[in-house]
Design a protein that fits this description.
By secondary structure, the chain is mainly alpha-helical. The chain folds into 3 domains: about 140 residues, no CATH class; about 45 residues, no CATH class; about 40 residues, no CATH class. About 55% of the residues lie in helices and about 10% in strands. Strands 1-2 form a two-stranded antiparallel sheet. Strands 3-4 form a two-stranded antiparallel sheet. The two termini are about 35 Å apart.
Length: about 250
């Protein structure tokens, strides 16, 4: 969902079919002020939801996420300011869960932490993940650019992303450095084979996490690679490979 306001909104229009030339037609939207407010409220509720989710990763007293949770606690309840009743951040969760009573912040923090604890994730690890997120997404436009990368890592349990601090990613950095050194060295055939055996395939090509090609499918992928390398004669050797066979995708 995007929310970009520039200037003052004076009207709203919605699609109203096509004209005789196939161009889109528009019509004024009734009660647009109420609908615009609902959109604004939904957007802000989502912002508050994920702020509290992030603050729930705090574990150590005095660290940034724990301090964030303390600041959330200060504005959690509804309050009167300058004679006006102001909603606290709890309102987003009251609407989320339904009912008239807003849950306590402690209940929501426990609700966010429970899946991590049930999956055996130490809260100290969860805290470091949250701090890494803040570190990488700090600064102007960083959230917009980095959100596509971090969203599946933090919010989609079905995704298989390449984690930036995962052992495979860290190993790739080490292998790339080693390759740069070895490529400039005068190696014999034995040394070249040792280098090849010590390097993971993911260090030189991008792999789909968790995706494995097997047997005939694996052979076909190897043939594609051989053709692209200009070594079509390798096809016969690939055909003779014994099964079962597995390669990363």
């Amino acid at each position: 969902m995007n929310r970009i306001y520039q200037g003052k909104v004076t009207a709203m229009e919605i699609p109203n079919g096509k004209d005789e030339r196939g161009q889109s037609k528009w019509k004024k939207l009734d009660d647009w002020q109420s609908i615009l407010w609902q959109h604004h409220q939904l957007f802000q509720d989502a912002v508050n939801y994920y702020l509290v989710a992030l603050a729930s990763l705090g574990h150590t007293p005095g660290r940034v996420l724990t301090q964030l949770r303390e600041r959330v606690a200060a504005v959690w309840d509804d309050a009167t300011k300058k004679g006006q009743e102001r909603e606290g951040m709890n309102a987003a969760f009251r609407r989320r869960f339904g009912g008239g009573n807003a849950p306590a912040l402690e209940e929501i923090v426990e609700w966010f932490q429970r899946p991590l604890i049930d999956d055996g994730v130490p809260m100290s690890t969860a805290e470091k993940a949250g701090e890494f997120l803040l570190h990488r997404l700090g600064g102007e436009s960083a959230i917009q650019q980095g959100g596509r990368v971090f969203w599946p890592m933090f919010c989609n349990p079905d995704s298989t992303p390449t984690f930036l601090l995962g052992k495979e990613r860290l190993a790739r950095s080490s292998d790339e450095k080693m390759l740069a050194e070895k490529l400039c060295a005068d190696l014999d055939d034995s040394a070249i084979k040792q280098v090849a055996q010590s390097i993971h395939l993911g260090s030189v090509v991008n792999l789909e996490p968790g995706a494995i090609l097997k047997d005939e499918e694996a052979k076909e992928r190897l043939k594609m690679a051989a053709t692209e390398l200009g070594r079509a004669e390798l096809h016969a050797m690939i055909n003779d490979l014994n099964l079962p066979l597995e390669i990363p995708k």
